[in-house]
Design goal:
Number of helices: 7
Number of domains: 2
CATH superfamily of the largest domain: Tetrapyrrole methylase, C-terminal domain
CATH topology of the largest domain: Methyltransferase, Cobalt-precorrin-4 Transmethylase, Domain 2
Structural class: alpha/beta
Order of helices and strands: EEEHEHEHEHEHEEHEHEEEEE
Largest sheet: 5 strands, parallel
Shape: elongated
Strand content: 25-35%
Distance between the termini: 86 Å
Strand order of the largest sheet: 5-4-6-3-7
Length: 280
């Protein structure tokens, strides 16, 4: 409080005016904030939707994992607030974005792939819910992106033409017994399966367990695509089989696509038939 409350009266007029002056810890903007939850696709600027590009360029602030912030460097403009946080600080990113939006800024929160698939959209909405958000202020818009499994699939052909599912092998947020149960169900049901986060520096056994589970239900020569950094400069694509997949280097930037019993490879193109009858 800079000036305590004072009551001022005029001798010539009826009534009075009460005045007090205080300094807010946060500058008043007079604006309603927005949260733009943006999926930037696999990382190549050509794969980002026009709407997502506009959202990033128009935002007052851009928040994301440092690698993703670097990938969209050419979309940023002078004067924007840029905050890049490490990969393990997703909760901090969500809270900081909401804080800036409540201040009245338009904030773009970027995720690779689609922000609503293993991305930041869910976390931001969960944090807003925990704060009693009314669903309106700050305003939220979600901008979808090309997912990692879509990007990987497009590089090897048409492996997702029939029923498929995605499973993350990371047990940081999901107990491993739950993940293992999902692997068993997917393998037994003959889903084409995309494995996210298949192996990290400290987590090496899960991909081997996944292979053993699928070998119980599928032939050893079932086609498998291993795609690293799809559409980026260091992209690597390998077509192999279920029994030999562990011979290929796999890390956190790898997408593993396991075919179903009908999936085949023709001239280095991976194809899962949809079931149409072909004439001739």
């Amino acid at each position: 409080l800079l000036v305590p409350k004072q009551i001022v009266k005029s001798a010539n007029q009826v009534g009075a005016v009460t005045v007090a002056i205080a300094q807010s810890p946060v500058e008043y903007t007079g604006r309603l904030g927005k949260l733009l939850l943006v999926g930037i696709g696999p990382g190549n600027l050509e794969q980002i939707t026009p709407a997502a590009k506009t959202a990033i360029s128009s935002a007052d602030a851009v928040i994301g994992y440092s690698l993703y912030i670097n990938l969209i460097a050419t979309l940023r403009r002078p004067g924007q607030i840029i905050e890049a946080l490490p990969i393990t600080q997703e909760t901090q990113r969500a809270k900081r974005a909401i804080e800036l939006a409540e201040w009245g800024l338009t904030v773009a929160v970027v995720s690779s792939g689609d922000c609503g698939i293993y991305g930041m959209a869910g976390l931001v909405l969960e944090e807003l819910r925990s704060r009693g958000w009314d669903g309106k202020t700050p305003e939220v818009q979600v901008f979808p992106g090309i997912t990692a499994l879509q990007a990987a699939a497009s590089r090897v052909g048409a492996p997702l033409m029939h029923d498929f599912c995605a499973i993350s092998l990371s047990d940081l947020l999901t107990p491993w017994p739950v993940i293992e149960k999902r692997l068993e169900a997917s393998a037994a049901a003959d889903f084409v399966t995309a494995l996210y986060n298949p192996r990290s520096r400290n987590r090496t056994e899960q991909i081997a367990i996944a292979q053993r589970i699928f070998l119980k239900h599928r032939k050893p020569d079932t086609p498998v695509a291993i795609v690293v950094s799809a559409y980026r400069e260091d992209e690597k694509i390998t077509l192999t089989t279920l029994d030999k997949m562990l011979e290929i280097p796999i890390d956190m930037l790898t997408m593993v696509l396991i075919g179903n019993q009908s999936t085949d490879v023709h001239q280095d193109w991976m194809i899962t038939p949809r079931g149409y009858r072909l004439e001739g």
